[in-house]
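re: ur question from yesterday

yeah so i grabbed the chain u mentioned. its 187 aa long if i counted rite. heres the sequnce exactly as i have it in my notes:
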Amino acid sequence: MALFQQWFAEARASEPNDPEAVALATATPDGAPSVRMVLMKHADEEGFVFYTNGHSRKGSDIAANPQAAMLFHWKSLRRQVRIEGKVSEVDPAMADAYFASRSRDSQLGAHASDQSRPLASRAEFLGRIAKVTARHLVGPVPRPPHWTGYRLVPDRIEFWMDRPFRLHERRLFTRSEEGWSDTLLYP
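ran it thru and got these structure tokens back, copy pasting raw so excuse formatting
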């Protein structure tokens, strides 16, 4: 994690857009994959945290098959970090705290959106936002029960660095009961 934190700090300093953007891959119980971009909001020794609607496609995938993979690609640094592991929900207090830190409009949008469900028209969604806004004119907007955070606890983290002539550098960390092991991989 120390190496990830170092690379992430460098990405925050040089990546022009969203250094915390990460591709998240999940799969259904029968193995049908799905990948999308999310924003990693926290990383520490316990794992990598992101937030979303638990009724979304990714939430449904995670509930049925709690394995996932992430890929950070920092083009400006010519680096990638691949992460694989188990996913679990963060505790409600952590989800509440992060939800409270979001903009009011984002909070209202979380209430109005049936993420990943069919939508007849944009006007329908805007109408739902207007109704939610009317219900929460004053005071804090509570976190919807279906909106939560997830933590990917890594079993494998691979650091990839571009090198000339496609002689890339790859370093793989694998977790076992004894701790982390480190090995180089051929490009």
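noticed a couple things. Residues 2-104+143-185 form a domain with the Pnp Oxidase; Chain A fold (CATH 2.30.110.10). also Residues 24 and 70 are 5 Å apart (CA to CA).
anyway ttyl
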